[in-house]
Amino acid sequence: MTNPIDKHAKTLATSWTFIIVVAAIVGGVGGVALQSGSDSGPENSVAVVNIESAITGGTGDAVAKELRSIRGNDSIDAVVLRVSSPGGAVSGSEVQYRAVKRLAQEKPVVTSVRGPAASGGYYTIAPTDKIYVTPSSLVGSVGVISSVSENNGVPSRWKSAPDKGTTGPADKARARAATFRQSFLDVVMNERGDDLTVDRETIGRAQIYAGNKAVEIGLADEIGGLDAAIADAADRASVQNYGVVYRSPGGLGGLLSIIGGNSDTGAANAVSASEFCTNEYLAYAPQAGPDLEVIQNASC
């Protein structure tokens, strides 16, 4: 019998990829937002920053650079992160998390999730002041995918969360993945602990939750769209007359790799084989269903 959440996840992954492709064509190579990267804008403004790709080291650096620019821009009073990301490399996810955390210490930061904010995507938004989701948003998947190359050149993979399963002979990499998982859990509990209605063990099972359920258990705050997030951010900054500027971090590495892959495998095809074989990943693969993550074989 087909799991309806799993079926919905597959559909969302396909439509998510298609939307990004169309946006890239319309917006040009420089980004997928209406306005890219410029520091010019109205005297008071809310910046909407698009984070809409799988996460690699390159995309993480691009997001961090964009957020540093915003921190130094006095005309930007508050920020909305417009997120649709299934996650990606641990390194890039950590860079994005630290950049968002630093920004949130200086300006109000609100998140609007329009698709998935799973694994590394959720790690990124955990320190924001408020998380808005839609009923169809997919949130959670707190765990780590790890891989090492075996003698035959095909990497062995396992997942650090109990519900993601564990397979593979390399104890070192398994221990490393477990360490990353604990760090990820620590971040979620520290950033969201007061709002969570479930315990650490439940969060650590790496389940993925639809929007309403995510709000119910405290991984998200409220059902609402981009307009609600913008209004909330402006209110937190105590500005009434303001403009909205749309900014998109430079670099399309994650986007282009998704275009080149199979949308049904989501983040599984979002990075090159050579990069995958040397990294741990915080990534949600929609075809695995709401509780599991899988990665298909790739040559190292």
From TrEMBL:
Keywords: Hydrolase, Membrane, Protease, Serine protease, Transmembrane, Transmembrane helix. Pfam families: Peptidase_S49. InterPro entries: ClpP/crotonase-like_dom_sf, Peptidase_S49, S49_SppA_C. Residues 102-149, 178-239 form the Peptidase S49 domain. The chain crosses the membrane at residues 12-34. It is an enzyme of class 3 (hydrolase). It comes from Halobacterium salinarum (Halobacterium halobium). GO terms for molecular function: serine-type peptidase activity. Its EC number is 3.4.21.-. This is Protease-4. Belongs to the peptidase S49 family. GO terms for biological process: proteolysis. Coiled coil: none annotated.
